[in-house]
Amino acid sequence: MNKPTIGILYDRIRWEEKELASRLESRGALAQMIDAKMQVLPLDSSRFDSIPELVLGRCVSYYRGLNIASTFEAHGIRIINSSEVLELCGNKLLTSQILSKNGIATPKTVVAFSSESAMQAIETIGFPCVMKPIVGSWGRQVVPIRDRETAEALIEMREQQADSMQTIFYIQEMIKRPPRDIRCIAVGDDVVTSVYRYAADDSWKTNVALGGRTEPCRLTSELEDIVLRAARAVGGGILGVDVMEREGEYVVHEVNGTVEFKGAQTSTDLSIADRMVEYALSLEQISAEKAATSAQA
Prior knowledge:
By secondary structure, this protein is an alpha+beta fold. Among the domains are: 108-173, ATP-grasp fold, A domain (Dna Ligase, domain 1, 2-Layer Sandwich); 177-274, 2-Layer Sandwich (D-amino Acid Aminotransferase, Chain A, domain 1), CATH 3.30.470. 37% of the residues lie in helices and 25% in strands. It has helices at 15-26, 62-74, 83-90, 92-101, 115-125, 148-159, 221-234, 262-265, 272-296, and strands at 5-10, 30-35, 54-57, 78-80, 109-112, 129-132, 143-145, 169-173, 180-187, 190-198, 213-216, 238-246, 249-256. Strands 11-10-9-12-13 form a 5-stranded antiparallel beta sheet. A 4-stranded parallel beta sheet has the order 2-1-3-4, sandwiched between helices. 36% of the residues are buried. The model has no long low-confidence stretch (mean pLDDT 92).
């Protein structure tokens, strides 16, 4: 019997990609590493014979991962997560829209589309607030705004950058929360882990990539409910759902379509990668059974 083969699409091999490959092999599957930077994809090809039928998308670059995912899908290759999920999760404005549309608690958000209207958006939220780029990760360019002088300086700085994305001003309320947030990892219909993330001493950002640390977080029924609702709202798959605590309720502020989990793994005994691999192999098995049934028909 042939071993199932799962692709791992990457543009940088990190601890997570190595762990996923190791867990695939420990389950008797083959991991095919696919360097996204080296892909040349003819759109008129009927099928990409060298690419497995199921691929785990692990690109750091949002645009690279999104566009390769859509190209794979156009040629019958399934990718986790789908291009639709990646697009929603990689754009903070789209994420906020879908969360709000589905009645999921999320920070109050106002968006403006020019430097002339940006201050009005900030004043609509009020001070303090947070300015974020609509595309970006690791907390880059996420800035707290506590007064009008800071707001004016940030607007002027963005105005001078030759980047059309900088003319989209995404402003959120600053949630009054404990000095932490919660990272939950949803795989299919399960929340496989939840951890607190604490900022480094000299920062208010909780990103582990910026020096934050993690601790175990008990998964309450309320937390599980809002995480799974958020995961379903964006289309499901393998997702990192970031949650804040506000006066006895949970607020979802971000959903990650290509979730890093090295930090979360330090605060749990179960293997997060193994749960991801188990999910991928279950989908591969379903696809194989469908193909066998079609061949017999």
